[in-house]
Input
Amino acid sequence: MEGFTALGSPATRREAVPKVTGTARYAADHTPPGCLYAWPVPATVASGRTVRVDTAAAGALPGVVAVLTASDAPRLGPTEDAALRLLQDARVPHRGWYVALAVADTLERARAAAEAVTVTYEAEGAPDVRLYEEHPGAYAPEKANGGYPGRSERGDALAAYASAPVRVDCRYTVPPLHNHPMEPHAATAVWDADEGRLTVYDSSQGANTVRTELASLFGLPEERITVNSEHVGGGFGCKGTPRPHVVLAVMAARHTGRPVKLALPRGHLPAVVGHRAPTLHRLRIGARPDGTLTALAHEVTTHTSRIREFVEQAAVPARVMYEAPDLLTAHRVVPLDVPTPSWMRAPGETPGMYALESAMDELADALGIDPVELRLRNEPAAEPDSGRPYSSRNLAACLREGARRFGWADARTPRASGALLTGAGVAASTYPVLVAPSQALAHALPDGTYRVEVAATDIGTGARTVLALVAADALGVPADRVTSVVGHTGLPQAPLAGGSSGTASWGWAVHEACRALALKLERRDGNVPEGGICASADTTAAAKQRSPYARHAFGAQFAEVRVDTVTGEVRVLRMLGVFAAGRILNPLTARSQFVGGMTMGLGMALTEHSPLDPVYGDFTARDLASYHVPVHADVPDIEAYWVDEHDKHLNPMGSKGIGEIGTVGAAAAIGNAFARATGRRIRELPLTPDRVLAALAGEEA
Output
């Protein structure tokens, strides 16, 4: 059929031309008439309270309309996120907490006014920002992020470990990490006092989530709030829930009666939009001489803020991966004088699998067994923690296909050329299949075209494109006859883009709406009246049903690295990933997601870290000059493939999430490659030259 693009065929993203030509409008690109600009004032102490906030000098500057503080800012309603209770009292829970907001007629004047604000603090002494296992404030949380139990135990893992013929006991450390999307957090808020309506353009992964939070904070009915997130320049989790910028923009708009735009400077982001919490891992693995596991214990210690508990669920992946008769996974958390951690691409799985897959390699070395073979020997028949059967589990196929494509049989042997050492590593990946209730509308128009509507958010993943493909497939029409409309709260209710659940959730509703529309068209012999025909769908009942199956995506990642023993530099020569992620709906954008995730894992392995200053309580790397994310030169050769997977226990499209699994396992593959090349194991990321040289010199790493 002319113009037909089948679901599963490569399709160029719909918004490509607007993005590359600069016509796509992001949150900060909206400038309503009379728009003001806001600039926040961050606290310079790590814990304490403000005694006096002097705004006189700031308020006297030209063009300044207001300087809001806790004494005159609008009062906010209830919220479960204490990080959004801004300018409500004198408390300072961490450095970078906003204590004032300057509003002026230009951006430059707003910034100058913010710098002119003088704040007197009553500090509470030296900040407590150091995470360590024996911290007296550590406790065992009931739940970890995602609602998982904080502790899960089957049998007596520690006793089984103690009696195992072969044992590995190792500790790994992952530092704080930051999302740093290309587009900083920004919002433009327009308050219509006459109509009592609020319109917000926000850089967010979920417009409906923002609307619900704003309604509670500002005491407005949700139907009087419109949130637009038409184009979003990345998020990686840090835009998954409302952040301070949107609350402050609305607060200023309500206070001044004029539109207000607020774009956070990049240097503020680490302190106010969340971060991946540091994690300390202890793994104890017991095995028989043939490599089969007898015991697995993965214990994690992480930090949270003093105003909200967030527990990185880094021990959870061990409940999924390998067969072990006795299994212990547990979390401990320490409240510190730090900003509240939050979601970062594959929270839990990324640091947890780094530690687990590194420990599995250490076990392979202790046993003298090939690392790929060790993983294959410990494939479970059902999910170890729950006992539920897998809806599909093709990790073994990923490992075998990856080894074939990578040339593992030859690459696994380390090589040396002068001062350069080369080695290869492997690691497995996993990520759960998540889905949330969604609604959608499908329209048939008289001109023979179709339109689907859903309040999804495209954060750069190609959601517009894949939803059009899903609709076309359900309608049996060419994809170029389908338009998908996403990105604002005037559309049918939809969940946020997060947890690799977007396509599964939105696509399910779009598919059902289009199937209902197709039935209507059949009854009319395809005749479409002037006003068109529409059909709707709501997947709430179906999506909330608990599946009897354990549903996960899996993958295998391979890396080859070269280590310079003189400079300590580690270079990744090539990476390859093979994934089992259900039906791949758009290979073009799917490959981009896999490659992007693997690249992010490379940064985690080699360059990304942001320690907390023990004196000032601040993150030390607050911009892209000091927080080093990978660039093209860091990834000379990276490939992503997948195995065909037909899983009927997922959704009508048969798809699993792909946005995050590429990150999971990548850092471990690189770390394992380094160990293979050098014979040394560094157990703290990233693998920076100072640590490399120390390890090569035989110092403890």
Notes: The radius of gyration is 26 Å. The first strand starts at residue 36 and ends at 42.
